[in-house]
TrEMBL record:
<dbReference type="Pfam" id="PF04613">
    <property type="entry name" value="LpxD"/>
</dbReference>
<keyword id="KW-0677">Repeat</keyword>
<protein>
    <submittedName>
        <fullName>UDP-3-O-[3-hydroxymyristoyl] glucosamine N-acyltransferase</fullName>
    </submittedName>
</protein>
<dbReference type="GO" id="GO:0016020">
    <property type="term" value="C:membrane"/>
</dbReference>
<keyword id="KW-0808">Transferase</keyword>
<keyword id="KW-0441">Lipid A biosynthesis</keyword>
<dbReference type="InterPro" id="IPR020573">
    <property type="entry name" value="UDP_GlcNAc_AcTrfase_non-rep"/>
</dbReference>
<dbReference type="GO" id="GO:0016410">
    <property type="term" value="F:N-acyltransferase activity"/>
</dbReference>
<dbReference type="GO" id="GO:0009245">
    <property type="term" value="P:lipid A biosynthetic process"/>
</dbReference>
<dbReference type="InterPro" id="IPR001451">
    <property type="entry name" value="Hexapep"/>
</dbReference>
<dbReference type="Pfam" id="PF00132">
    <property type="entry name" value="Hexapep"/>
</dbReference>
<keyword id="KW-0444">Lipid biosynthesis</keyword>
<keyword id="KW-0012">Acyltransferase</keyword>
<keyword id="KW-0443">Lipid metabolism</keyword>
<dbReference type="InterPro" id="IPR011004">
    <property type="entry name" value="Trimer_LpxA-like_sf"/>
</dbReference>
<dbReference type="InterPro" id="IPR007691">
    <property type="entry name" value="LpxD"/>
</dbReference>
<feature type="domain" description="UDP-3-O-[3-hydroxymyristoyl] glucosamine N-acyltransferase non-repeat region">
    <location>
        <begin position="27"/>
        <end position="91"/>
    </location>
</feature>
Length: 308
């Protein structure tokens, strides 16, 4: 998330009541998770395992729970609980607001677009031209919909990310301030859920088609002309390149990449990167031809045992 204006480091430190290392006027332009940070962003880190990754990332402000040497050209915010203070910043810069606010921030709806009864469009939503939004669709705050998009009944765009930190008293939720961005000529089936990014965008690329009852997690990026069949679950922070085909009841773990033109056959579980053009099947998914030979061999085992 980029802020509406640039803030000095000292002001950000005041908002979350923490110490800072660096020039008081050091520019702060936004806040993001580590996989989408750019210069001017705050990134948070609260585990020694990830200190170096955060300090060496593109982020120029690191919200951290230990006083460390500050890299050149960067600044630090020293907090006893970076997770909590990242949430404080979200509450400050992108607080949840009731729909009554939409009177002053109404959705923008393009020419030729049809919005059926009982569809909900939240604050600062933008819908392009010649779209069809069917009944009982929920498009939550700040979502962006392109031209010639069809969204079928019961679909929810922009629900919060499934992202929690375990505390002694239970699970603490990381607040979401990102968006869902749908490109032109996309069709989304009924009863789908597409979560907004924690701080960036969950993106559905040009011409992609999504079947009914599909879930897409936070900050995931679908490329152009991707097909996703029914009952597929895609975790957060997945990158799916152009022209990928994902068939029914596939499960995909977080933080992996599916290469251009690959195909994931039905009921597969994908737990690692997939190379462009590969065809995978099974759980854990592997090369479909190899997997089918393995299954054929397994079916022959009773005969081997019987003939011993």
């Amino acid at each position: 998330m980029k802020f509406a204006k640039t803030y000095p480091l000292s002001e950000i430190a005041t908002i979350i009541d923490c110490k800072y290392v660096g020039d008081a006027s050091f520019p702060v332009q936004g806040m993001n998770e580590i996989h989408v940070v750019t210069a001017g962003d705050i990134v948070f880190v609260d585990h020694p395992k990830y200190y170096d990754k955060a300090l060496e990332s593109a982020a120029t402000i690191v919200l951290i729970n230990k006083e460390v040497d500050c890299p050149d050209g960067k600044a630090l915010l020293i907090s006893d609980d970076p997770f909590r203070d990242f949430n404080k910043l979200t509450q400050y810069f992108a607080p949840f607001s009731a729909f009554a606010k939409a009177e002053s921030n109404p959705p923008i709806i393009g020419e030729g677009t049809i919005v059926q009864p009982n569809a909900f469009l939240g604050n600062d939503v933008v819908v392009g031209k010649n779209c069809i939004i069917h009944s009982n669709v929920s498009i939550n705050d700040r979502c962006i919909i392109g031209d010639n998009v069809i969204i079928h009944s019961g679909t929810v765009l922009g629900a919060d990310a499934f992202y929690y930190k375990r505390r002694p008293e239970g699970y603490d939720k990381l607040l979401s301030n990102g968006r869902v961005v749908i490109d032109d000529h996309v069709e989304i089936g009924g009863l789908c859920t597409i979560d907004r990014g924690v701080s960036g965008d969950t993106t559905i690329g040009y011409g992609s088609k999504i079947d009914n009852q599909v879930h897409i997690g936070h900050d995931t990026v679908l490329g152009k002309h991707v097909l996703v069949a029914s009952q597929t679950g895609i975790s957060g922070c997945v990158v799916i390149e152009d022209e990928v085909k994902i068939w029914g009841q596939v499960g995909i773990r977080s933080d992996i990449r599916l290469g251009k033109g690959c195909e994931i056959m039905a009921q597969s579980g994908v737990s690692k990167d997939v190379q462009p053009g590969d065809v995978l099947f099974g759980s854990p998914a592997s090369n479909a031809k190899v997997k089918f030979r393995e299954l054929a061999a397994i079916r022959m085992l009773p005969n081997f045992i019987k003939n011993k």
